[in-house]
Amino acid sequence: MAKNDLISGSIWDEYSNQVVNRMNSPQHQGEITEERAKELGTKLIVADFGAESCGDAVRLYWAVNEKTDVIEESKFKSFGCGTAIASSDVMAELCVGKTVDEAVKITNIDVEKALRDNPDTPAVPPQKMHCSVMAYDVIKKAASEYKGVDMESFETEVIVCECARVSLGTLQEVIKINDLTTVEQITDFTKAGAFCKSCVKPGGHEEMEHYLVDILTDTRSQMEESKMKDAADASESGELTFDKMTLVQRIKAIDSVLDEDIRPMLLMDGGNMEIIDIKENIPHYDLYIRYLGSCSGCSSGSTGTLYAIESVLQQKIDENLRVLPI
Amino acid sequence: MMEVYLDNNATTMVDPKVFEEMKPFFCDIYGNPNSLHKFGAGTHPKMVEALDFLYEGINAADEDDIIITGNATESINTVIKGIWVDEILNGNKNHIITSEVEHPATTAACKFLETQGVKVTYLPVNEEGVLESSSIRDAITEETALVTIMWANNETGKIFPIKEIGLICKTTGVAFHSDATQAIGKFPVDVQDCNLDYISFSAHKFHGPKGIGGLYVKKGSALTPLLNGGEQMGGHRAGTVDVASMVGMGWAMHLATSKMALAYEENHVSKLRDKLETAILELPETIVIGGKGNRTPNTTLISFRGVEGESMLWDLNQNGVGASTGSACASEDLEANPVMNAFGSDSELAHTGVRFSLSRFNTEEQIDYAIEVVQNAVKRLRALSSSYAYAPESHKSAL
C-alpha cells in the first residue's frame, strides 16, 4: 500500500489508448464461415475457450492454408470485459500471416505488449493482466484442433502464474538460490503473483492448480530436508562443522565434549551441569546452561569455571560459542 | 452528449437545499460544539434541529440515541465489535447471525470476529433474493449475541422482512441490528415498529454529504464505543463532530423521509425505473434478477444474455450513462459478488448483471436517452459476443 493505491476505482483510467480504441471498434471481430474458408481454399478452424459462467469466453476462427500451415484469416467473438475484447482483437491480428507453429508461440505477454502505446507503460493495470491470458489459451486450442493433438502438448512446463508466465521450476529455483521466505519476496524476484493474484493462495479470482504459498512451504521443507541430509552425510564422513549442524547434532556435540572434558572435573567437587538451550545470535551461538549440585552455589560458576567451560568448547567445537549460566 | 447518473445506490448528488444549509458551517459558524464560548454554542441550534430531523425520519423515541458517525461502515463496526466486547469477550455468548448478501462492512467485520473465535452463521437468500425470517428463528441459539440483517439489498433492491425478524429477536431476547443504508428515503423506516435495537445509515445514500453517518441505539442497548477519546456524543463516539455534515445529514433525512418525498419515490421514481426496465425487457433474452416483487422503488438489476457486465458499463460510460455491476471483473479486487453468487455460481447471471439505480433527480428525458444507449450497447456487444457467434455444424461448442 502506498500513495498510488489509496484511491481505488481507477482501472479504466489506466488503459492504453490502444485498449480503448480496440474496445470501441475492434478490427478483427467477426466470424469465418465454412463458405468463406472454402472460397479461400483453406481449412476452417473454430476454437472455444472459457465459459460465460466464468465471466470470460472467446471463440477464435482461423482459415488455414493446409499446404503451408499459414493462417490466412483470423477472427474472434468474445464474451468479456474491455481488456478481454481488446486482447482478443490483437491476438487475432497477430495470428494473420503466421504458420500455426509460429502462432502457438504468441503469449499473453506479447498480446499485452502489442496493446501498449509506449513500450515502457503497461497497457492495462495489474488486475487486468489476467484478461489477456485467455487470448493465449485460445490460440493453443485452435492449434490443437488443427493438428489433432492435445492442448497440453504445447506447454512444455507447468505455468503457475499465468499473467507473468512464471513456471513451477523457475519458482522453486528462485526460492532455493535466494533463500526466499515470503511470497512478497517471490513476487519481487519473479513478478509471479503481482497481477491478478489468483496464484498467491486459494480463494482468489480463479482456482489454480498450484499456489505460491504452497510452493514456498514445499520448497522450504525440501530445503530443510536436504540441509539435514547434508548434515547427516557430513557427520558420517567427519566433515561436519558446527554451523552446518542441526540442533540435535549441536546438542550431541556439546554434550560429548562436556562428558569428556568438563563433567569429570565438576563431579569431583560434587557438582554437575545441564544444557538448557542453544540460540543463534549471529555471529555467536549462545549456550544456556544450569549448574547442578554443589556447582549451583559456587562463586566460581560465573568466573573461573565458566571461562574454563567456554574455552574448552570454543577450542573443540566453535570459536563463536558463548556460555551463559542461568 | 447527455449525462445520466443511474448509480444512486453507490452514492447520490447532494440536494442543493442540503448544501445551502451546510454552507454557513465552514466560514461563519465554525466553532467547536464542545467549546463553552459563543463560537461553539452557536453551532447548537442547527445541530439540535438536525437531531430532530434524524429522530423523526426513522421514528426514534426521545430516550433513544442517534450517534453521529463517519459513515455506515463505522456504525456497523461499532455494533458488531461492541457486541463482541460486551457480550462475547465479557459475556457468555459466542454467536452472531447475518446473511450471505450483506454489504462488506458487515461481512468483513464478521469474518474478522471469526478469526477471533466467534461463531457466525451466514444465512442464504431464496431464489428471489430475499431472506426468509423463519431461517433466523431456526438459527438462533442460547449463544446468539446478535442478529444483523440489511433492510434492503444494495444490488437487487430486495427488501428483507425486518419487522418479522424484529419480532423473533424480541421474543427470543436477542439484540437486533439492521443496516438500513439502502432503505432510508426509499420507503418508510420505523425503528420502534420493527423492534430494532440498532440501525446504521449514511447520509450520502439519500442526497446528503459523504463522510457522515448515523447509528440508532435503542435505550438500554448502549455498547462499548469503537473510538475512544473525548466525551462527544455522550461518550459513545469520540471525535469532534463534523457540524456541517451533521446539519447536512439532518436536512437530507428531512427531505428524503417526508410523506411527500416517500410518495414521490413510490409513485414517480418507481415509474421511471419501470419505464427503463420495461423498455430493456423488450430486448430478447433479458431478465430482472430476483424478479420484480418486493423491491426498493429505484433499483433494477438486469441480466443481458451474452453481454459481460463490465463491457456493458463501458459502452454506457462512453455514452454518458453511469450504472454499475456486481460482476467479478468490474470491482477493483476482482472478487465475485456474493449477491450474484447467491443466485447460483454456475449461472451466467453472475457476469451479465447490470444495476440501474435511480433517484428523485432523474428526469423522464434522461430515462428515454438511457434506454436508447442501452439498446445500442446491447446490439453492438451481442454482435461481437461469443454467445451469439456462428459455428459450423461440425463444431461442438465449448462455451
Structure annotation, total helices of chain A: 11
Strand content of chain A: 15-25%
Taken in chain order, the helices and strands of chain A follow as: HHEEEHHHHEEHHHHEEHE
Helix fraction of chain A, binned, reads 40-55%
How many strands, which pairing sense, and closed or not: the largest β-sheet of chain A?
Answer: 3 strands, antiparallel
State Rg of chain B: 22 Å
The rough form of chain B would be described as globular
Account of the protein in words:
- The complex is a heterodimer of chains A (326) and B (399).
- By secondary structure, chain A is an alpha+beta fold.
- Helix content of chain A is 41%, strand content 18%.
- Chain A contains eleven helices and eight strands.
- Chain A has helices spanning 17-24, 34-39, 82-95, 100-104, 108-114, 133-147, 168-178, 183-190, 212-236, 247-268, 304-316, and strands at residues 43-51, 56-64, 71-79, 159-161, 166-167, 271-281, 284-293, 321-325.
- In chain A, the strands form three sheets. In chain A, strands 1-2-3 form a three-stranded antiparallel beta sheet. In chain A, strands 6-7-8 form a three-stranded mixed beta sheet, covered by helices on one side.
- Chain A starts with 16 loop residues before the first helix and ends with a strand.
- The model of chain A has no long low-confidence stretch (mean pLDDT 89).
- Chain B is α/β, with parallel strands linked by helices.
- Chain B has 14 helices and twelve strands.
- Chain B has helices spanning 16-22, 24-27, 38-41, 44-58, 72-89, 104-115, 133-139, 162-172, 243-257, 259-281, 309-318, 338-342, 349-352, 364-383, and strands at residues 4-5, 65-69, 95-99, 119-123, 144-150, 175-179, 198-202, 213-217, 286-288, 299-304, 321-322, 353-357.
- Chain B has a seven-stranded mixed beta sheet with strand order 2-8-7-6-5-3-4, sandwiched between helices.
- In chain B, helix 6 links the parallel strand 3 and strand 4 (119-123).
- In chain B, helix 11 (309-318) packs across helix 14 (364-383).
- The chains are: A alpha+beta (326), B alpha/beta (399).
- Chain A binds chain B through residues 8-9, 11-12, 23-24, 26, 29-31, 33-34, 44, 46, 48-59, 77-82, 84-85, 127, 130-131, 196-197, 204-205, and chain B through 306-308, 310-311, 314, 317-318, 327-330, 332-336, 345-348, 350-352, 383-392, 395, 397-399.
